[in-house]
Amino acid sequence: MGDAISLKNAGNALYASQDYIQAYEKFTSAIELDSKNAILFSNRAACELAMNRQATFDAQMAVKLDPKYAKGWSGLAKCRDDAANYIGAVVAWRKAVECIPTTNLSRAEMTLNRQFKQGLRSTESRWKAARMATQVHKSLSQEVLNSGDLPWDRVTAMMQELCNRPETGISSASSSIMSALQFILCTDSGMDNVCLTYKTQVIEKLSDAVLFDKRIFHVAESSWMENYDSQCVFRNRIFKAWLDRGPEQVIELAKLRVLQKGWNNARPALSVTIRAWVMWGFFACRITHDYAAAVTWYDKAIELLDRGRRVWKDIPNEVRSMVFTDTFLRAVRSAHLEAYHDACTAELGKFDKKYPLRRLLELADELYLDASKPPPPNINRAWNLAFFRYPAANALAVKGWYHKHIGEEADCTPELRVFHNMKSAEMYIRAAREWIPQDDELHCWYLNAALRRMWYARAPLSFSLPVMAEIRKVYPDMNSIWEFSTALKGRDETLREVVGFERKVLRALQEGRLNMGSSVILGDKLD
């Protein structure tokens, strides 16, 4: 025990000097000597949190060993809060407060009591925001679901026509939607009644579907999330997965599982763990709009995928799990980029930023470099779109947003303002024309984003008019599938506004009131 205490003291000193890696090692060595010490597990959890690692297991061990340990409960509360488990975090914060004496408090206890109550209020605030976001993301009514006008219904009705189209250039967006829909249908119960049976691979199929095309996802019943959570608990139990561990721990546990029970046992556990993290990231981003939590879940999934690909680099994907393929990782990186972009957007105007724009640009560059590689020969349309074209377009669009933001900053010079806005327009145009099918709503939307940047830079009509013309030409094809899409709010009003403005510009050009060197923007009086 004496050695364990010495190691703990050394770990505390290293933690105080912010040497979290060495502190973690000291606490780990101490735990090997004294595995019943709650403080050691709590301290190691603090190191993991400081390194943005998963600390839930150690935090749970701390309160299991000592249910009256206030710091143990506060550590567990932080873990749950980071994972967007706000109900569990509130419970843990309250437990932490209850462990503090109510009378004759020392100065240290008064400080802890204040910190724990502040943590509780912060979590309750995030929980309230998440509930409000969930209410906004209402389930689709049966009238809408049965209308036959949703994108997947339109695509299904058009399948024969679409299948007869020659495979030239960028194919139709319908192929990606249909593939995503097939994954949903393979759950036997579809999206509407998902998780009502434990006989199907719901987590596996749903994760494949949203990575193919996230727009296929819709909530059909108010109990959907509750049913899905039950499915996660069930599959975690039967496969003995590691949902509450960190990537580094999962790798070590999986290596041991492979040695003891073989790949047939380890493979589904790894798959469920990674896919569950991906889906939690998706839900945090799409439903509760907790972008920080989404980034955390995707970070964990990517770290585990990267580590697994290195550790088992000589093991075929069919053996180690198909989640370790290039395409799966690329799709997760694309989802992570979206979440990071949303987190950056939420931080605009704040002085202290957790998600720097420079890192966003780096992530976009890395994804584009990977996604723009030539796809394998004979790859089908859907896979080409989902795992190459859409990620590449996403990366360029994020780069476009980056330049848009830089060009709008108050300290940007007029010359740089024009440069960044035109660079933004270039990125959006490349995303649309090079990577997105013309019948995809994103094609029109990226062109619209480019046009807005040109207007902001007061670019002449020689730049902006061709973009307006392209929006007008592709709008009908896009609407044949996406007329009732729920993905882009206010899309049709915005695009119709562009079409109407182009009509006025063409009339003014014909009458000689404008020429192609004229700089006009939406809102200018042309009549």
TrEMBL record:
Entry-linked SUPFAM superfamilies: TPR-like
GO biological process, one term: post-translational protein targeting to endoplasmic reticulum membrane
TPR repeat copies, ranges: 4-37
Record-level GO cellular component terms: membrane; TRC complex
Keyword annotations of the record: Repeat, TPR repeat
Domain of life: Eukaryota
Residue ranges crossing the lipid bilayer per the database entry: none
A single GO molecular function term of this UniProt record: molecular adaptor activity
Protein name: Uncharacterized protein
Species this chain originates from: Rickenella mellea
